[in-house]
Design goal:
It is a single chain. With 158 residues, the protein is of the alpha+beta class. It has a single domain, classed as Aminopeptidase, CATH 3.40.630. Helix content is 32%, strand content 23%. It has 5 helices and 7 strands. It has a 7-stranded mixed sheet. The longest helix is centred in the C-terminal third of the chain and has 15 residues. It is globular and about 40 Å long. Bound molecules: coenzyme A.
Amino acid sequence: MPDMLVPLLKLPPLEPLLQELRVLDVVIRRAHPFEITPIREFILAEFGQGWADEIMPCYNHQPITLYIALKSRRLVGFGAYEATRRNFFGPTGVAKTERGQGIGKVLLIACLQGMVDMGYAYGVIGGAGPVVFYEKAVGATVIPDSVPGIYTDMIRRD
Ligand SMILES: CC(C)(COP(=O)(O)OP(=O)(O)OC[C@H]1O[C@@H](n2cnc3c(N)ncnc32)[C@H](O)[C@@H]1OP(=O)(O)O)[C@@H](O)C(=O)NCCC(=O)NCCS
């Protein structure tokens, strides 16, 4: 899976996107430190231990570099930045039953806006799975010769 580059200076405004989701009873906001356990449980159940661990550095930053999506106040998604590397977006995920409603895109843009606020002009999607999603949502482009990226020499547990 390649890394991708995102031009951060051309992001769409976040606030109207947040309001559109609010109409559907979906709230996207930063995670609070007192929510570590339910967020971890959600990610473990939906996406596994690797991502549940990978977001932990987000809580070391102030503001916390993790956004969550709530539908009717239940967790349905998350997006992280500044987790595994500086200037990297990811991991991110939306519960299977809630995909295709624009939640993943708004989580992504909220995180990327967080990176803009830190002073970055470009961002990196580390080991992008659904390349088309990132191309469509924020005009990201594949970084040539970016495989293998940072996810190499992984621990084998079988
Ligand atoms: C990728 C993911 C976060 C997208 O979340 P989502 O809420 O379903 O995405 P959205 O509804 O915001 O989709 C935005 C656009 O991207 C497209 N899109 C979404 N997922 C896509 C995918 N996997 N492949 C191609 N296009 C995709 C949508 O069709 C939509 O297009 P449109 O604007 O023309 O309607 C979600 O599919 C997911 O959790 N996948 C599993 C985990 C994963 O792969 N995470 C990324 C790791 S790098």
